[in-house]
Design a protein that fits this description.
The chain is of the alpha/beta class. It is 24% helix and 16% strand.
């Protein structure tokens, strides 16, 4: 079996969901594991984000989900859906700062060069 994290079911920062990826990998490796043709035991693991709860650093084959883009901001909705000070405070690299739209709505601005794609700002 593949050691994996729970993904969207229990985690607040996943970049991928574990279930589908694990099923696809196990389908691909089923014959190899079932026939015992490998020269030694092989550990396969999957982590849905950079926190690596799936212990991918201890495995022979590791699958790691990563965020690749900075968050996109819908200025019309963000003040209604999000606690802006919490989103700002959650950013470990200070890539998020308060902003106002031309119409005066409170919003956020993301410095894409500073963003490390952790996902803390929208979880």
């Amino acid at each position: 079996n593949i050691v994996h994290t729970q993904g969207w079911a229990h985690c607040h920062t996943p970049a991928i969901d574990a279930s589908g990826v694990v099923k696809a990998v196990m389908d691909g490796l089923y014959d190899e594991f079932g026939s015992m043709r490998m020269p030694a035991p092989v550990r396969v693991s999957l982590a849905c984000c950079l926190n690596m709860c799936g212990a991918v650093h201890c495995s022979d084959i590791a699958i790691l989900g990563i965020h690749r883009k900075p968050p996109m901001i819908d200025h019309e909705w963000i003040d209604k859906l999000c606690e802006l000070p919490l989103a700002i405070a959650a950013c470990p690299t200070a890539a998020i700062k308060p902003a106002k739209t031309e119409s005066g709505l409170k919003s956020l601005e993301v410095n894409a060069d500073r963003c490390m794609f952790c996902g803390n700002c929208y979880t």
